[in-house]
């Protein structure tokens, strides 16, 4: 018998899951919770084998709950339920220790198979999440400047090598004087390059330009 906990803020979803597990057999739904904080409390009292955890919940979300539960019991397997894969959430969830991901719309047979898979120490990844991870691994092969160049080109913004150098220096919060010294340019030339960046990005202020460049790297 596999002990399962369902953590989902939608009551109807919890009820449906309870009925499905009861019909299927081989599972004991020992607890359900409507947020991560309640899941943490219940996991301390009666640890399940597997937790099906929604990612977006009030009070405490699925990622924070995963991190806390894993810190007290690494043996509990946690499958994160999501509607749409978001890159930062996927990375953060894996760092927190999640054992797999499932679409909230997955059919129950897929849920059952995923539970068995994580109990056999497999990590459950959908095709879309695998693509997210592959893209992140590829980015690790490049310098931050290379990534910035690619992100800009994806938005049809093409910079010359020197413009890219200046953009990268702006990311480091350097003044025009510091940039000029670093790149062996005059301050006037640096100002010209920054003007080019304003024109190509359609941004008029330095602070907004820096924020935009940082956004591209996140």
The portion of residues assigned to helices is 55-70%
CATH homologous superfamily grouping of the largest domain: Response regulator
The CATH C-level name of the largest domain is Alpha Beta
The stretches of 5 or more residues where confidence is low (pLDDT under 50) are none
Please state the structural category: alpha/beta
Give structural notes.
With 218 residues, the protein is α/β, with parallel strands linked by helices. It has two domains: 2-137, 3-Layer(aba) Sandwich (Rossmann fold), CATH 3.40.50.2300; 143-217, Winged helix-like DNA-binding domain superfamily/Winged helix DNA-binding domain (Arc Repressor Mutant, subunit A). 59% of the residues lie in helices and 13% in strands. It is built from eleven helices and five strands. The chain has helices spanning 11-24, 36-45, 62-72, 87-96, 108-119, 127-140, 144-154, 161-171, 176-183, 187-201, 206-217; strands spanning 2-7, 27-33, 50-54, 77-82, 100-103. Strands 2-1-3-4-5 form a five-stranded parallel β-sheet, sandwiched between helices. Helix 3 links the parallel strand 3 and strand 4. Helix 3 packs parallel to helix 4, helix 8 (161-171) crosses helix 10 (187-201) and helix 9 (176-183) crosses helix 10 (187-201). It is elongated, with a radius of gyration of 24 Å. The model has no long low-confidence stretch (mean pLDDT 89).
Task: List key phrases describing it.
218 residues, alpha/beta, Rossmann fold, Arc Repressor Mutant, subunit A, 59% helix, elongated
Task: Provide a brief overview of the structure.
This protein has 218 residues and is an alpha/beta fold.
